[in-house]
Amino acid sequence: MSRSSHFTADILTTDSDRSFIRSLNEFMEHEKKCLQCPGEGPDELRYTVHRSVFSKVIGRATAYKRLLLAVKSEYDSTIMELQRREEEARAARLTVAASESRRKSLLTCERQAAHLRERISTHQRETAELQEELEREKTSKEQSSWMPGLTVAESEDPEALDGYLKDMEAQRDALLDRKSHCVPLEVKTKLDAELQAAKRRRDELSAENNLLTVLYKRLRSVWDCLSSWEEEGQPAPLGELVGSTLENIREADGTDEDICSIKQLFEDQEPAGADASELVSDYLDRFLELFELAQYEDAALIAARAPRGVLRNIDTMEMFKGAEVLPGSLSPSFLFFWALLFTAGADGELSAPLSLQGVSCALQSGALQLVSYAVTHKKLTFTEELGDILTEHAQENPGVADLCLTLATIIYEACRLHRKAALSMCRRGLIHSAAEFLKHCEDLTAEDSMWVLCRSPSLSLLQLLTEPLQDSAAILSVGGACAALLADPQQRPVALQLLDSFVSRGRGALEEVIVGDVGSSVDVWTHVVSLCSELERDDLSRAILSVLLSQSGTRIVTPDPEGARLMEHVYL
């Protein structure tokens, strides 16, 4: 730390610069100590700390910001390349191991094949011997002919032999005539090769023609859209028009299996190597130029479409958040979030930090429909924090609460946060759906159901959760739920309403509930009696106590002195 301070002493001109460098050094030392970075050698945690510090330096820099951004981009690219090479080396080692296993299997198969070939040779030799024996038996028979197609008697008849000779001569002439129309085998082989080459060329030209046809259709669509935009007097921004046009083309291509995606067509023509570095540098220069000119919409589109996604990160979002909002215009961070969504591929998802920041900016700008599009089309990384942001926005804005809670439910279910999903259903008024969800979700416990009930108290929900299931007990026991709710001043009315509903139906209904409540002991119901007495609901406490005393073998231990004397009198 002292050496770095000595190194920067000559270039630091103000006390604020020295204080800034000193805070950065303290920050790095503190983070390395907290993260337990090793003293020497490459380490991912040290790279993360240095990257964060470098981002702070870029944020403070003015004259060299463009250069520092380019250095940071190249540094990140180098780190990603090293990680990619490490993954490739690991994959190569696994491939070598798999190749060795396949080689052993191949040797085993070759040995088995050699054994089978020997057996086949033996069978073929035996078959040949049998065939020779059959031929010898045929030649020994008297009915055998001397010539093919002639019997022994015909072979001795000169007229028959003359006729046979004429037939053979006719067959010979036919074969010679046919031979004159044939070509050598080498010529046929050459013609077959030329035919295959012509077919391959035909297939290549057909594929190229299809590709050019697709490109023509897309360029024609863009041309028609731009012509219409110019004729109508430029009613909408050009960037928004082009983005919507490309999105329409992308959706149309998704329904045609014979047309490849537009993104893949253009990515195949992207430069690589030195050309790619120049392209990234040009994008960075153009982005910074537009950003400094406060042309935030165009700068957001440039950042979203930057090669390799070098500007599709949280650092760029922080730059837009720090920019000044022009009067009568949308916030720069919202424009960047919009550009990220509509330039993402079909399977592209924003990172979790970008998703959180983008949704917050969209909600502040009142663009709830954009958030709905991003959630339903899976353009975001779903996290618990993202669902909490939508839930909080629903509580602060009742007019859009239903849509926000619906989106939050989708996110919670995707993250397997089932109790929060059930709570969102309750807040939307879907009490029965929430109860069914709690009953049939295997990951939820009685504590989770109580958690939902305490945060969304409802008599209907309490009745549904305490109803016995067809083949098992209820999710919540009546006594346990009432005892927990009566102990909380904010939840007492729901428990009292439930007990009043039992008492209003008569002593038999209350007795049936208490006797059938297998999840609560007598001590739990005694505690309920005590809580009702403290709340000056003597009618409820007497009704419950009467049912408990009517059960044979029941022993009640009450903390109330008067209740204790009453029990002593009853048992005496």
TrEMBL record:
The species this protein was found in: Pundamilia nyererei
The record's section on Gene3D superfamilies has: 1.25.40.30
Which positions make up the signal peptide? none
PANTHER family, A to Z: CLATHRIN HEAVY CHAIN LINKER DOMAIN-CONTAINING PROTEIN 1, CLATHRIN HEAVY CHAIN RELATED
UniProt keyword list: Coiled coil
At the top level of its lineage, which domain of life is listed? Eukaryota
The name this protein goes by in its record: Clathrin heavy chain linker domain-containing protein 1 isoform X1
InterPro entries from the entry? ARM-type_fold, Clathrin_H-chain_linker, TSNAXIP1_N
* Occurrences of domain Translin-associated factor X-interacting protein 1 N-terminal (ranges): 26-135
Q: Which residues form a coiled coil?
A: 72-140, 188-215
